[in-house]
Every structure is written in structure tokens, then in C-alpha cells.
Amino acid sequence: MIEIKDKAKCCGCSACRNACPKSCIDMIADHEGFLYPQVRKDECIACGVCERVCHLLHDDKKNTGFSSSFYAAYNKADDAVLQTSSSGGVFWPLAEYMIGQGGVVYGAQLGENFQVAHSRAETLKACERFRRSKYLQSDLGDTFTLVRKDLKSGRKVLFSGVPCQVAALYRYLGTDHENLYTCDVICHGVPSKAVFDRFIAELNEKKNDRATSICWRDKRNGWGPNHISIRFASGKELITTSRENPYQTGFLDDLYLRPSCYACKDARLPRVSDIALADFWGYQGKLLEGNKNRGLSIVITSSEKGNFLFEQIRSKLVYEPALKETVMEKSRCTHSAPMKNHYREKFFKEFHSGRSFASLTKKYIHLPFAKKMARKFRVRLLHEM
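Given the sequence above, the corresponding C-alpha cells read:
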């Protein structure tokens, strides 16, 4: 029976829940807002399946020894694709290819009340909800069960997720199915939903309004610097840069990530997935000349399937090879886990005591100097026309 004594050894992937033959495992949020398995012991038959499918309890090494290929790339389609993509829009042709093959795509979507969950798509239209970054952990629910069902029926599957979710899927399935293709979104770690909920609640109170949606990668002013927009029920919007948003700054400073993120064994090269995508911040090259600050992606292929996928989509990309050393320099998340912020325990102790997120921001989150002096967002309020 799976029992989480060390929270650094659970990534919340739900593989155990999906594998349980008695369906007696629930995923329950702890006091920090992260999901962990909870076994209904009176129904458990002690079969051990939950422990066998836990990838953090086993030293699986996917793609070890494969010589990865590295690219800088962006989608050559019209601006609409790039505008609605987090970086270079490379995921979209992957989805187009898979749907065109009669396959299905799995990805993370942002739903009501800012809940992020994986879902299944059989049409390109349905894949649109997988675009853009979501800086919250996705609830996988029954996704692994559905993936297995699709593979057994002969369908091709593209599964996209953060690397621990990809690794967990492979462990759950027990083998690398011929029709399974995986894409990992190179990850900085997943932040606390409980912290996010308090941030939103206090923002609603401050604005006397209700936040209804968030875009973590608003490109109206270009790809960089990154802007975040929050829309309210009144039609107004709050727009800040990432570093002016206290929740995002705490995330970037590794203050309230999931415990397992600080010990992530999937933050490595080669990647656990067939093909991996990330922002290519700080890139210097000819590719930028025609990009017009619309977004640029790192693309890493770490298997023969990854190379195959890139061959299928490269005609839809503007791309050039990139040096491994450059990729590693510009994106540390490709090869190393985030460092635990030494204020994390103190932050959560005060968070649980009921202190406001606003007061914790002033104490623990290092906003830009001008922002600290003003102690308020530099905002632009926009009204719907």
C-alpha cells in the first residue's frame, strides 16, 4: 500500500489512483495545496500495484544514452498561432500531425475557478485549450486509464505534460507502446494552488471585482518581457510583467513549489519524453530577424520517435540547430531541478497562520525596487469596447 511519508517522493501524478484494482485511492490536497494519494484502508487488498507503478519509487532511465538534437524554432504560420501560444507555437503542428493521423491528444487545460486538469482531444478545435502556459499543477484524474484504452484500441496518442507526468505515464503503462508519442513542457516546478487561491481572493477584495480568467503569457506587447493579464467580471483587466506580479515572482523565486520539484529526477538530458519544448529566452541568432518578438521555442528531441515527430512538423517551422551548451545556459530547467528557497518553511508557517498573501509578499517576495516602494501593481485597466 502506498503511503507518503516523505512528500519529496510524490509528484502527484495519480498513477497509483489509476492503477488501483479496487479504486480505493483518492487524490487529496494537503495544507499546501498539493495533491497526494490517500488510500481507503478498509477497501485495500494490499496487492502492491500502487507501489509498482510509482515512478519515484523506481529508478527508471528513459532515453539514456540517446544523442539529443537541439533547435531554436517558431511556427511560420500567421500571427494568430503565435499570439495564442506561450512561446514559438511548436506544440500546434504536433497536435495537427497527430489529429491528422486519426490520433488523440492529451494536454492540460485551464477550467473554471482556475482549476487545471488534463483532458482528451480528438479534434484540432479541442486542442486549442491546451495552448498557453498554466502555472499550476494539472490534475491528471483518469487520464492514464484513458491513454491505455486508446492505445489498446490501436489509436495513436500524443501525451503532453510536465516531465514527471510523462515519466509516470511510462511507468504506469509498463512499456513504450509503438503508438505513444510524448511531449514534455520543460518545467520550472509547480507552485501551490492554495497560495494562488489566496492571491486571487485578496485581489478580488482589493479590486471589489471577481477575477474570471488569467493569461500567464499575454503577447499583446510582444513575447518579452513576459506579461500576465487577469480579466475580471466587470470587463476590466489587470496587466503586469511577471516580476510585477507577486504570485509569479514567488513562483520564479522557488518559494512555494511542490516538495518533489526540488528533487526532480526528470530535470535532465536526454529528456524523458520524445520531444521537449520550452521558451528560448536570451537566444541570439539570425532566427530572430524575422520573428518580431513573437516567441521562440527550444525544441529537444531525445528519441527516434522525437526525431520522427520533428521531421513531420519541420516544414511548418522556422528553425535552426542550437548548441547543447547554449540551451543549457539559457534554460537551466532542461538539466537541473530548482533550488529550494530557504524561506519556504517560514513562508508556509505564516501562510497557515492566516497571514494575508499581501503581507507575506512584502516580507518574502523580492519584487522590483520601484514596485516595493509603491506597494501596489503598476496596472493598466482596460474596458471592453
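The two ends are 57 Å apart (CA to CA). Try to locate this feature in the C-alpha cell string yourself.
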